[in-house]
Structure formats: C-alpha cells, structure tokens
Write a structure and sequence with these properties.
By secondary structure, the protein is of the alpha/beta class. Helices cover 47% and strands 12% of the residues. The chain is globular.
C-alpha cells in the first residue's frame, strides 16, 4: 500500500495552521488585544514549595494607580487555566486577576496525602491550626495573598478579593478564616471580599453559621470559643442543578434560595432578618452593616441554571462573579457584566485541540510514506483482516448480544471499583476521597485507568467466548488475524508512535513557552507536561495500554465487519465504547432531577465526562491506522502514550506511602 505523501503533508500543514490560529487568536483575546499583560510566574510558599501563578495585569494598573485584585482558585483535578475566563473579564474591567495552582495540581509542588484537606478541616469552627500560615489548610491561597499584599505595588491592598470553584471555594473559605483569626490576634485582615462558586459558606453538619466559631484550644464547648463576624463582602453562585451542594431542608439545589442556609447568609447583615416564610432574592445585591460595623458590606446569591462542573466555563457564572466584584470593589474600568469575550477564547482553544489530534494522526501517516517506516504498511488493502459479518440468526444474536454485554457489564462495577480503590483508608473516606498508590499516585486516574484496563480485558474475554460459540476457529482462524510482528518493526512502531505524539506536543510546547497557553475543553486539557507528572505518565501507560490494545483488538478483529461502510463501522464502535457511560449519566442525573440527590458519588461521575472524548478519538485513530498497517499496534500505542500524558499532566498528584489500595 502506498500513501499519498502530498495529501498527508497538506493535512499536517492544515492541522498546524489550525493550531496556530487557535494559539494566536487565544493570545489576542486573553490579552484583550494588548490592553492586558499576562505572565506566568512561580512563587515559593511558607513551606518552601512552588506555586504556579498566572497574572492578568491591565495596563492601567500601576504603582501610581493601584487596582483591586482578585485571586482565583480552581476545583479538584483541575489547574489554574480553568480560571482564565473570569480572570480575563476581570482584567478587562481594570482588576489585577491572579490564577493559581492548588497544592498537588498543575505547577504546585506541594503534594499532600490529600490536597482536599479543606473539605475535612474547614468548618465554621476553625481551631488552632488557623493561627499559623504553615498549618492553616489554605492550599497555598494565603501564601498568594501574602505575595500580592507584600510584593505587588500595582494592587490596592484594601481591595483584595478571593474566589474559588468547588475545592477552591472551600479553600477560599479557609483562607478568609485564617485572615479573620489573624485579625483577632492583632494582625491585618488582608481579605476584603469572598466569592464562592459551586461551594458554600462554612457550616457545621450542613448548617451555615452567621459567624466563625474560633476555638483556640480545639475543644468545642470548652468555654473559650470566640464568635468572629463575617465583616466582608460575600457572594455565592449556587448552581440550580449543582449535584454537589445546596441540598438542604428545602429540597434540591433549585430550591436553595428558600432554604434556611440562604436566609442565614443574608441575615449576617444587621439590616435584614428574613423569616422562614421568606426567600432570598436571586441576583439582588443586599447591603448592610455587620455586627454594628462602620462599613457597609454586601451579600449576593446567584443561581445559574447549570451543573457543578460547568461553573468555571459558563458565561452565566462568569457574569455573576463580575457583577459581585464590580459591586464589592471600585472597578477602574466598569463594563456591563454581560459584555464578555472570554467564551471566544474557549472556542478557539477547542479548535486547537482538534488540530492537535489531527496533527498527531497526519504526521504519523506522513512518516509512514518514508522509506524507513513504509515497511509497517500492508502491501495491499486486501491484506487487512476484516471479519465476516454474521450470517445466521444465531451468529447475529451472538454478535449483537455480546457487544451489548461488553458495553454494559463494565459500567455495573465502575463505581464499586472506584470506591474500593478510593476507600483504602476506611469507609468514612470512601465516599469523598480519591487515593492512589506509590506506583500510581494520582487517585482519580488510578480509578479510571484500572477500570478501563479491566473493561478492556473483559471485552477480550467476551470476544473469545463469542468466537468459540460461533465456530470461529474454523471460520476465521487466528492465523488470519495478522497479529505477528517482527522485532525490527516493533521498534519502528514504538519510534513512530513517539514521534507522532511528539509532533503534537511540539505544537503544545510552542503555545506554552511563547504564550503560556494550552488546548482545552472544560477540564480536558492538553498542556505542556511538568517533569513529575510526565514521569508518572509512563507508569500509567501500563494500565492505559491494557485498555487501548484490548479495545483495538476487539474492535478491529471482532466487531468492525467486512461489507459495512467504514464510517458506520467507526460510528458503531464509538457508540459501543460510550453507551454504558452514557446510561450511567442518564441514571445519575434523571434520579437527581426527581429526588434532588444523586444516587452515585458525584465527583467520580462528573470526572468521567472526558472519557467520551477519549473513547471517540481513540476509536478513530486505532481504526484508521489499522487499515493502513493491517495491525492493531501502532494506533493502540499512539493512544496509550497520548492519553496517558494528557491525563497525568492535568490532575491531582498525591504524596502516597501505601503500595496497595
């Protein structure tokens, strides 16, 4: 078989051009066409660990004309780039906006046994750990506030706000609690405004308290508790369909404005005393004093119609944040909250992601036209093994029946396997934490990749069961499968796979080093790898490889039959790969819509959405390269390397001591 070198050269060129359009277009939008300066830096926290920051500095912010500042923090398994949308919009309005990596994420080097300490340690009863920055569970946010307060002359020190989504929201609570206790101890409170997105004000057993119950001796009801008022601007964006938060005595999150917690939030202001018959008005800026203060503060409750993971990328949630901070602070360049351009940056970034996948595939095909790699090609398309379509009623029943079994059985144990892996520290941790092992120290990925690996092996077993039941050894003996590969071509396959993925990451590296950008769709991010996650990805390739090689085998050797149109073959396999997961989502969110609570662990279900992308792209790449090489290995290996790197370089890494689950 000969490939059209000119075609694939043009294909690669177009892919690179698409990526460059994405990079340059995103860079223009993210700098507001030159009026905002963006720069990536690293600072060292109080424990000596690095924290990665991106600073969005409007040119109007100078030492002579300092501007308000907002520090934003992402949610679990994410990175600081998820806060780019709101940061750009704040900077356009004259704010200095700073995004940061949480401990254990992105470029933050402080790995912990569990970076989600804030969820466990932060309640409305903060204790002695909050008296020192090295022990307060602020995941580096207090260190960033200190850096801004002490080192950035372009920032108005009296107008520093913090915002967080999900994990970042609880961390923002912890950061404010730390500074409020510092104020009680005679030091300045450096926080003037707090905005929570996809999380809630500090609570005890789910009930919001109108004050911080500071407990210096860490023994509740010992008589030394000190009530510290929330004398700060506070806003909450509570998604109407947030499956993680806001389910109270009032019912599902869509009823949150009529809940007691919502009333407590507004009643923190001296001017209000909402009763049980009253609901909080969504979007209203409530103003008043706090605990007899001289200064007036605001409270605002927003309710965008969206689920939890959409918050950071949603125009509605971004509008809410802009509305809050432009009311809490004096915006140097006030612009209507509805006037935004950040969404176009996200669209261009998705375009770049498509270009990345196309560049990996087209560069592989182009290199296959070279004399060195051409030995991997089949001599003729007729040499590619294609199983015969089932002919009898019995073999058709086996074909479709076993395909359905392979699609649905893995999803039945997905959550159980995840909870077993995540729950090795005991039942109380199982429902809320994700833990890894020393070999695989990224808990979420360990759960997903181990499930994928077992699912892949299961489908291979199902294939052989159908194979023998349908008298396969006589109809299509393994000798026809073209599975053998000589040693020389093994090394060529490995080299070609590495080079192909390398082309894609060369483009990513260009965007990273010159513009500080990456390609992303929500929290599915293709970013330039830091050293540690890059090395960790090699370990995860073992588990990823089990799935991608198994999947390529069962699809190409067993399911994609001769005589069926190729686009239909590919579409059918994309559906078979994803339909079980799709049904899981339907079950999760239909139940949620009916009773106001999700039946399955919400964090784990939410984080599976990116598997839809993985399952689709891997199917296309594996199939197209199988048709060219007649073997499953090249496509499966490219998928293994590429998706292991994508996953490992954008998630939470843990400081793990256990070798087993």
């Amino acid at each position: 078989m000969k490939l059209n070198r000119k075609f694939y050269a043009k294909f690669l060129l177009v892919s690179i051009i698409v990526c460059l359009i994405s990079i340059f277009g995103t860079a223009l939008i993210d700098t507001n066409f030159g009026s905002v300066i963006t720069k990536d830096i690293k600072i060292v926290d109080s424990l000596g660990h690095d924290i990665g920051l991106t600073i969005y500095q409007p040119k109007t912010a100078t030492p002579e004309n300092p501007a308000p500042c907002v520090i934003t923090l992402h949610g679990s398994y994410n990175g600081r780039e998820s806060q780019n949308f709101i940061s750009l919009e704040l900077a356009k309005r004259g704010f200095v906006a700073i995004t940061m990596d949480c401990d254990g994420h992105g470029d933050a080097s402080n790995w912990k046994e569990n970076p989600m300490d804030a969820f466990f340690l932060v309640t409305a009863n903060p204790g002695s750990s909050f008296e020192d920055i090295t022990t307060a569970p602020t995941s580096g946010m207090a260190d960033v506030v200190e850096f801004v307060y002490n080192n950035l002359a372009i920032v108005d020190k009296s107008q520093i706000g913090i915002q967080g989504h999900s994990l970042g929201g609880k961390t923002a609570d912890a950061c404010y609690a730390y500074y409020k206790i510092q104020e009680y101890l005679g030091k300045p409170n450096k926080i003037a405004a707090v905005f929570l997105m996809g999380n809630q004000q500090l609570a005890v057993n789910g009930s919001w308290l109108p004050y911080l119950n500071y407990d210096p001796d860490d023994v509740l009801e010992s008589g030394d508790e000190i009530h510290l008022p929330y004398d700060v601007h506070y806003g909450v964006s509570a998604g109407a369909f947030d499956e993680n938060n806001y389910t109270t005595e009032a019912g599902g999150p869509w009823t949150f404005p009529s809940s007691n917690n919502a009333r407590v939030f507004i009643n923190e202001l001296d001017n209000y005393n909402l009763t049980q018959t009253e609901s909080v008005e969504v979007g209203k800026i409530y103003k008043g004093t706090v605990n007899g203060s001289d200064q007036e503060y605001i409270r605002a409750l927003y309710q965008p119609k969206e689920i939890h993971m959409v918050n950071p990328y949603s125009p509605a949630s971004t509008r809410n944040s802009l509305d809050f901070f432009q009311n809490a602070f004096t915006a140097p360049n006030p612009i209507a909250a509805s006037s935004m351009t950040g969404q176009y940056s996200m669209i261009l970034s998705v375009l770049g992601m498509i270009g990345f996948f196309c560049a990996v595939f087209s560069s592989c095909c182009l290199m296959l036209t070279s004399n060195y790699f051409s030995s991997l090609l089949v001599k003729s398309p007729d040499d590619v093994y294609m199983p015969q379509a089932p002919q009898t009623a019995f073999t058709k029943f086996l074909y479709w029946g076993f395909m359905a079994v392979g699609a649905f059985i893995p999803i039945t144990y997905m959550m159980k396997l995840a909870m077993w892996i995540g729950g090795h520290k005991g039942e109380t941790f199982a429902a809320r934490s994700l833990f890894g092992t020393r070999i695989w120290p990224q808990g979420l990925l360990l759960e997903q990749s181990l499930w994928s690996a077992t699912a892949g092996l299961l489908t291979v077993g199902i294939f052989f069961l159908r194979y023998y039941l349908s008298n396969g050894p006589k109809l299509m003996p393994p000798s026809q499968w073209n599975m053998k590969i000589d040693k020389k071509n093994i090394w060529k396959t490995i080299l070609l796979a590495v080079c192909s993925v390398g082309v894609g990451y060369a483009i990513v590296g260009f965007g990273h080093f010159f513009f500080g950008l990456e390609f992303r769709l929500g929290n599915f991010v293709i970013r330039w790898p830091a050293k540690e996650p890059f090395l960790i990805s090699f370990r995860f390739m073992i588990l990823y490889g089990l799935f991608f090689f198994s999947n390529a085998f069962t699809q190409n050797i067993g399911r994609m039959v001769k005589g069926r149109k190729e686009w239909l073959n590919t579409l059918l396999m994309c559906v078979a790969n994803s339909i079980g997961l799709f049904c899981l989502w339907i079950y999760q969110y239909y139940t949620f819509s009916q009773v106001g609570k999700v039946p399955l662990n919400s964090a784990r279900v939410m984080q599976t959405w990116s598997l839809f992308i993985v399952q689709t792209v891997c199917t296309i790449i594996a199939r197209r390269l199988y048709l060219k090489t007649g073997k499953i290995y090249l496509g499966a290996l490219i998928n293994t390397i590429m998706f292991a790197m994508i996953a490992c370089c954008h998630t939470m890494t843990l400081n793990v001591t256990n070798w087993w689950f």
